[in-house]
Design a protein that fits this description.
Bound molecules: zinc ion
Shape: globular
Radius of gyration: 21 Å
Oligomer: single chain
Distance between the termini: 31 Å
Length: about 450
Amino acid sequence: MALLIKGGEIVTGSSRYVADIWCEGETITQIGSDLTPPDGAEVIDARGKFIFPGFIDPHTHIYLPFMGTFAKDNYTTGTQAAIVGGTTTIFDMCIPSRAEEPLAGFHTWQAQAEGRACCDYSFHMGVTKFDENSEAQLREIVAAGVQSFKVFLAYKGAFGIEDPELWNALALARDLGVITTAHCENETLVAELQKKLVAEGKTGPEWHHDSRPPRIEAEGVHHLTTFAEAVGAPVYIVHLSCAEALEEAIRARLRGVRVRVETLIQYLVLDKSYAELPDFEGAKYVMSPPLRDRSNQDVLWNALRQGIVDTVGTDHAPFDFLSQKPMGRDDFTKIPNGIPSLEDRIALLYTHGVVTERLDLQTFVNIASTNAAKIFNLFPRKGTIQPGSDADLVVFDPDFSGTLSVKTQTSAVDYNAFEGWPIRGRAEVVTLRGEVAARDGRFVGTPGRGQFLRRPTP
Ligand SMILES: [Zn+2]
């Protein structure tokens, strides 16, 4: 495979210039002006377009057994949706149940991905219990190239761990040089508030928010960062949704705790009024932590601009509106959680971040690609455009105008949370390791070509 992308404006997390990019095999081999392709090379005219490094979603659930059902995408549909939207690498959450051994879970997720994945992938390894046996297996999984853990302070009994396990997981992570990602909500408080609301007859999706208010998320962040501080381990807070939780993360940073923060595109563009839509439509917008009051959006945008929040992910967890969300029709606590966004993350972030001038282009690239590559040990193989890096490139048309819809999406779920929303700009051509994998919103790559990314020890 030889590929020449001519005349585009290259935008990385630290630079911006017009040049040609020459890719041979799976990597970028040369960047320069007026490069001449040999016969047979594929040439893409990118004049007037931006060239971004392939985007990275640090948080997805492609294969996900959850609340008695399975998320709707599989590794084929989910990763094709990613590629179409410009995302060339995902970090999928490998989450065995507490009854399962870590290695068995790891092998299950690998088997789901292998031969199906259409973008590159890594895992965050769920530590859903901690004993001698699981410790040995976790060491093996880290040695296999999975350099990050995931813990849940919520979902006690399913994936959530007890405090002694949290201590031990963080200590192992510190010793192995692994960063621990964490879902931060106080599960006891969530469970008690859920019981209280349901007993009061407050059973609709509009009550989901009040069962997990901002303070409960902030308590989770405080709890995690206190443990991280005592153990001396680095942590990464997933899906931070509100000002209260962010303040706890900032306080921890000021104390010297090594804490990174991820927010989600959903929290930046949606608010809790969506979960209050009538006729159960609010169920489309149930996820945890919940969509927040609109006032939090400016806080999160500002924090991204100032480098206080590091990454924007999706927590992509697609459940059908017609057949799966209704599991919780009479009880919001039983609604499968998730607002699918993997395919639309970049278009939404560009439209609502760059076009509105909340973000400059460099910040946009950093929060959607480069920072995740650096935090999770893939840089500079991923997350930038330079000779030697994988040829994961997004030729982005800033002048494109379109509309998001379930009718045109690639993801297998039966609704689009942003139905009818206008977007500006889109990934016109997406390459994965030198192969054109998407063009004009359609997957055109080789199914199953996505690779497991073995991450080196830092
Ligand atoms: Zn998640």
